[in-house]
UniProtKB/TrEMBL annotation:
Organism name: Trinickia dinghuensis
MF terms in GO: methyltransferase activity
One Pfam family linked to the record: MethyTransf_Reg
Gene Ontology BP term (one): methylation
Protein name: Methyltransferase domain-containing protein
Methyltransferase type domain: residues covered: 50-148
Residue ranges of domain Methyltransferase regulatory in the record: 220-302
Length: 481
């Protein structure tokens, strides 16, 4: 293909949408890996973090504000992405991110320190084998011992019926005129004209018709990055395990937290069929088939003591102790913790008295898992079951991993938020349509705050005689000392 052809490499004449991903927080990744048996990271001390293909680096800039003692690096070859990322960092006053306007291949040549975290979201399925090789070399050379890698990608079998739609879209876009964005819109319009039941592909694959309807509602910049790169590869999870093993990494768990708990995903028949398979590799692959998975957020660890490619393991007593040492809390209003919770395979119910006691614990802010188990474990309750319930509540999104334990009383006369939090609150208050992600050192990432709550927080900081928004005080965004 010619160099001027917009489809000759990674789409760069259109920017990717500015998105925040909670799974990229060091605290979240630490939780996912500890759940899988890895040793916890000390997030209270200095650490290094690299975001490969950072786009607007929204999550990384906010995470850097939430971990001022961490050193963050963000790399992307698109100058418009890096420029926007630098602007956000400057607006929030975040100084602990080094930006690299560079390809991964060029980054390989740079003298970089070892990283405790290397993340890539929305990259691995959208770059070709040469770029994946550069990524693998970066991981092999630049990941610290016991460092964690996050990689998300499209996986089979969930794409098996839709993959031909992408080929059709690419060919239609190549035949259209204009910018990549307008070609994406033309291709979708053309596919809609074809996507009727007289075309047997659409009739025989009803989910493809649904996918087409969803695509028609998606912004063209997203569609261009998702489908119009030269490379578009849907991977099998076990192949990614093999590729990561070449860089010395073992599978540690999933940052889609529910995926770490088969009970939340599989009915009894599927669970029994998978359990009967002869090895962990087959069970890993079969689970993708059981849930028809199409996207994975895998976490890998450089485990110098483990066997390459296999799940990192700690003795069970150590693994339990590590898990109990992690902090969890509730980012929503505590009163909204309900006895009935949505899980991937349906819903799950908890006893009313357990939920009442849990709400009271969560009012304190973030609490060690072991402390909640001990606190709720009296009155003949089974501690193992309580631990399990807490992990299920985190997996279902009712509770969240936190970076630290604690909470703040916002009662003192000196009212404050960190400069980065105050700037993000101002962004949120200015935009009634989109919540801003406000950094919280307690949470270890950004907290979605809407315009009204942000405006209240700013009035409280300015000294108005009023209560602070209690959620923001509980979650450490607002402090009265
Ligand atoms: C789909 S976007 C994801 C952006 C961001 N991680 C997110 O999820 O919001 C993929 C990003 O990878 C970058 N990219 C693709 N190939 C690259 C390469 N070889 N070197 C550096 N960056 C690359 C693109 O410019 C783009 O910003």
């Amino acid at each position: 293909m010619q160099a001027s052809d917009p489809f000759s490499g990674y789409v760069s004449d259109v920017t990717f949408p500015d998105r925040f991903h909670k799974e990229l927080s060091p605290a979240w990744l630490n939780y996912a890996s500890v759940l899988g048996g890895a040793r916890p990271k000390d997030l209270g001390g200095p650490f290094r973090y690299l975001d490969l293909g950072c786009g607007f680096a929204h999550s990384t800039v906010v995470n850097a504000a939430a971990f001022p003692h961490g050193q963050f690096h963000a790399c992307d070859l698109n100058p418009a992405h890096i420029a926007a990322a630098r602007q956000r960092a400057a607006r929030l006053g975040v100084g602990n991110v080094v930006f690299h306007e560079a390809s991964f291949e060029a980054l390989l040549e740079q003298d970089l320190p070892p990283f405790d975290f290397i993340v890539m979201h929305g990259v691995y399925s959208w770059v070709d084998a040469d770029v994946r090789r550069a990524v693998s070399q970066l991981l092999a050379r630049r990941l610290a011992d016991e460092g964690l890698v996050y990689v998300s990608y499209n996986c089979e079998p969930g794409w098996s019926s839709e993959a031909p739609l992408r080929k059709l879209m690419l060919e239609l876009a190549q035949a259209a005129r204009g910018s990549t964005e307008s070609r994406a819109s033309s291709a979708i319009a053309a596919m809609q004209a074809l996507g009727n039941p007289s075309f047997r592909y659409f009739r025989d694959n009803p989910n493809v018709a649904d996918a087409l309807a969803a695509l028609a509602k998606s912004p063209p910049d997203y569609v261009a990055h998702e489908f119009l790169n030269r490379a578009w590869a849907v991977h099998y999870s076990v192949d990614v395990i093999d590729q990561m093993a070449e860089a010395g990494l073992s599978y540690a768990g999933s940052a889609t937290l529910a995926d770490n708990h088969p009970t939340l995903l599989l009915d009894r028949q599927a669970a029994e069929a998978i359990a009967a398979l002869p090895n962990a590799r087959l069970r890993h692959l079969a689970e993708d088939f059981a849930v028809n998975r199409r996207f994975r957020r895998d976490v890998f660890v450089r485990d110098t003591r483990g066997t390459r490619g296999t799940r990192a393991g700690q003795p069970p007593a150590d693994a339990l102790r590590h898990l109990e040492g992690l902090a969890i809390g509730c980012v929503a209003e505590v009163e909204r913790i309900d006895t009935r919770v949505t899980i991937p395979r349906g819903a799950m119910s908890f006893q009313a008295d357990f939920i009442t006691d849990l709400r009271a614990s969560m009012q304190q802010g973030a609490v060690r898992i072991g402390d909640i188990v001990a606190h709720l474990g009296g009155d003949n309750r089974n501690r193992r079951e309580i631990l399990q319930n807490l992990l299920f509540l985190v997996a279902s999104g009712v509770l969240s991993p936190f970076a630290q334990t604690g909470g703040y009383s916002a009662t003192g006369p000196r009212r404050a938020a960190s400069p980065a939090a105050a700037a993000a609150l101002a962004d949120s208050a200015d935009d009634a349509t989109t919540p801003a992600f406000v950094p919280s050192e307690l949470l270890g990432t950004g907290l979605a705050v809407g315009a009204e709550e942000a405006a209240q927080a700013l009035r409280w900081i300015a000294g108005e005689a009023m209560q602070p928004p209690l959620r923001l005080a509980r979650l450490g965004v607002l402090q009265g000392t």
